[in-house]
Amino acid sequence: MMPLRWDDLRLFVAVVHKGSFSAAARQLRVGQATLSRRIAELEEQIGEAVFERDQRGIRLTAAGEKLLPAAERMAEWAHQAEQNMSVHPHLPEGRVRIAAPPGIAFELLAPLSAKIRQQFPALSLEILSGLDILNLGRGEADISLRTIRPTDEDLICIDELRVLMAIYAAPSYADTLNADITIDQLDWICWAESQDDLFVNQALKAMIPNFRAAFSSDDFLVQLSACWSGLGAMVLPKAYHRYSILPHLTEIALPLGSEAVGNLYVVVHKRHRYLPKVQCVLDFLREEFNHVRAQTEP
To answer: In CA terms, which of 130, 138, 219, 222 is 20 to 30 Å from 7?
Structure first.
């Protein structure tokens, strides 16, 4: 197959983003017939259709889905090249998608995004909160915060944080505990049975025979709300970043064992590493990681 032409890929990305050939043609100021012909030439070169057309408009085929992430990255680099060559350089702009576990997304990324936007208002931040690991190579996110170090050689670990895990509860609950209470006597808040393979549940089951939670949920925010309400105790990372909820909770000084250590890795795909908008967000994350390390790293 001959090398794909950037001009054709630019037209392809525009059609995807605008949702129709007519809207893309207006944005690019080309005739719709010309646009359709160029897309047809691209499909002929690939050997497969990239769009399916019906009464509701267009949608990507499997070949189009496969082509889109790389084409979007090329568009980002082309846009950045234009900015770099401009007589009047611009601040980083565009959308940055950050994937993270629910607790990190809620406690760290949401408030950190406000700080980033104050300094770089042209950035649009999208936080993808969940337990599944998104595929950076397919463009599902630009940055990923993970609890497991990546093994894919195309992924780069920009920074990592290692912190102790500890037991926390609302002051109203902690005040009811006797000084000689043991770990198996606490009212535990943890993940629901559907997430039973996660570290917290496995650690509690290893420490407490016939473990049974007082409250469980498949949603971290629901667990946290239960903890704040004084329902029981939770295992949380002992990471005192600038937006930490931990100062509002009471640490219960019971041992969790030497294995109770949490890891967090900042991961990017190597082709996104030097995009200015991505570097900007990475700088804020590194600054916050350094702040935590200065206080809490074991």
So the answer is: 138
What domains, with CATH codes, occur in the chain? 6-84 (1.10.10.10), 94-161+263-296 (3.40.190.10), 163-258 (3.40.190.290)
Taking a C-beta distance cutoff of 8 angstroms, is the pair 262, 147 a contact?
yes
d(CA 132, CA 102): 10
Which helix (H) or strand (E) is 126 found in, with range?
Answer: strand 123-129
**What counts of helices (H) and strands (E) characterise the chain?**
10, 11
pLDDT tens figures, 208-226: 999 999 999 999 999 999 9
Q: What is the DSSP letter of 132?
A: S
User: Which residues is 162 bridged to in the sheet?
Assistant: 263
Q: What is the pLDDT of residue 6?
A: 67
- Which residues pair with residue 201 across a beta bridge? none
